Amino acid sequence: MDALLTEDERAILASVDGFASRHLPPDEVRRRDREHQPPYDLLPAMGEAGFFALPVPDDHGGLGRSWREVALVQERLGWHGYMAASIYNRVVGFGVMSVLTYGSPAQKRDLLPGLLSGSFFMALALTEPGAGSDAGALKTRARRTAGGYVISGSKIWISDAEGARFLLTAARTGDAAKGSDGITLFLVPSDAPGVTLSPLAKVGNNAMPSFEVGFADVEVGDDAVIGEVGGGFRHLMSTLHYSRASMAATVTGAAQAALDGVMSHARERQQFGKPIGSFQVLAHRLADLQTRVDLSRLMVRHLATLIARGLPCKREAAQAKVVATETLRDVADQGMQIMASAGYAADSDIQRFWRDSRLYTFGEGTNEILRDGMARELGLTGRQPS
Ligand SMILES: Cc1cc2nc3c(=O)[nH]c(=O)nc-3n(C[C@H](O)[C@H](O)[C@H](O)COP(=O)(O)OP(=O)(O)OC[C@H]3O[C@@H](n4cnc5c(N)ncnc54)[C@H](O)[C@@H]3O)c2cc1C
């Protein structure tokens, strides 16, 4: 499939490979996972390589390149190590694209240089203990004061909250007790007085720490508001396709990496005097899995072209996310079966993919809710949760 890439696109992939060989070889990926060490220290090197500047127009200090190139960086970083791709996506998806899409001119001027150089990043603080899929039911409040707002409430499962300079926080400023109206987005410094971060233990994605975040009367100025007051939910929806495209690209890379490892084991491991991959039942299973990874890649690249051309792509973004995340889940699950005891060993790569992959079918919008959205776009159902 890479045969169809342009020279510029190949150069981007070579640049990601160079970055990964210096900073994230396989043993380093394993070490960071084992030691729960996030890759925040790699952000400046990614910034220097120009990865964050790809989708940003030159008049904002970017490289003015296409989202197709962003998707290639995401896919290849996902192949080398999901941890690096996830932090890249956080900078580009939640940071750069949010500021570009609904930030004020002053926020663009103040925030984009640091984001593009990899000096800092933002975490998205949307989910609450009582508001997961039904994000519009969030209860965190931002009360108006003379010079700004006072935020109180709590968020849960906020990835990388501790390393982030800002928490892109959704809080209720309107009268409505529930519903997506009257939600406003704030850039809350993660070290602001009143913000508390409590780490959460979890199954996988060890190098992407998750936090419960408390807001106890956190004071912020008017300049902390990003986008329109009351328009926060609409703003989040307007950038969702970026984060779904990012996840789809990344997990496609991860699925290829997982499958490459399983294939190589299937070629080498001998039983009954033959490589196990030559038994038809396994050979066909592996061929099917590679077909599904290729299908994910096609959907990811098609979606990237739609984004690059500014065309509508809500359904395609949901479809790519669903197909790619379920492909990785099945590659990891079937891969474990094919590798058997070698995969079940604590230091195998497939066990890491297996643990990590369970998140992606419900992170960034559960696949059930995404299918609801697709069905609605197809005119099959009426108004459903988005
Ligand atoms: C490791 C990790 C990292 C995360 N990172 C972040 C982050 O950085 N920022 C952030 O804001 N959030 C984050 N999240 C939260 C994540 O986005 C939510 O877990 C997700 O939105 C689902 O919410 P929930 O877990 O509360 O599930 P629920 O909403 O309780 O859903 C449970 C099940 O019910 C199904 N369901 C719910 N409603 C419907 C319906 N109407 N129709 C059919 N099925 C339905 C769901 O599909 C799901 O299968 C993270 C979560 C995890 C575990």
Give a topology summary.
Layout: H1 7-23, H2 26-34, H3 43-48, H4 67-80, H5 82-102, H6 105-117, E1 122-125, E2 141-144, E3 148-159, E4 166-172, E5 183-189, E6 195-200, E7 210-221, E8 225-226, H7 232-268, E9 270-271, E10 274-275, H8 280-308, H9 314-339, H10 341-344, H11 349-360, H12 367-377
Parallel strand pairs: 1-4
Antiparallel strand pairs: 2-3, 3-7, 4-5, 5-8, 6-7, 9-10
Protein name: Alkylation response protein AidB-like acyl-CoA dehydrogenase
Domain Acyl-CoA dehydrogenase/oxidase C-terminal: 230-378
GO molecular function, one term: flavin adenine dinucleotide binding
Total DSSP E strands: 10
End-to-end separation: 33 Å
Mean pLDDT: 95
- Could you name the CATH class of the largest domain? Mainly Alpha
Named once each, the bound ligands are: flavin-adenine dinucleotide
Describe the structure in your own words.
- Belongs to the acyl-CoA dehydrogenase family.
- The chain is of the alpha+beta class.
- It has helices at residues 7-23, 26-34, 43-48, 67-80, 82-102, 105-117, 232-268, 280-308, 314-339, 341-344, 349-360, 367-377; strands spanning 122-125, 141-144, 148-159, 166-172, 183-189, 195-200, 210-221, 225-226, 270-271, 274-275.
- The protein is 52% helix and 15% strand.
- The protein has a four-stranded mixed sheet with strand order 1-4-5-8, covered by helices on one side.
- The longest helix has 37 residues, at 232-268.
- The radius of gyration is 21 Å and the shape is globular.
- The site of flavin-adenine dinucleotide has 21 residues, from strand 1, strand 3 and helix 12.
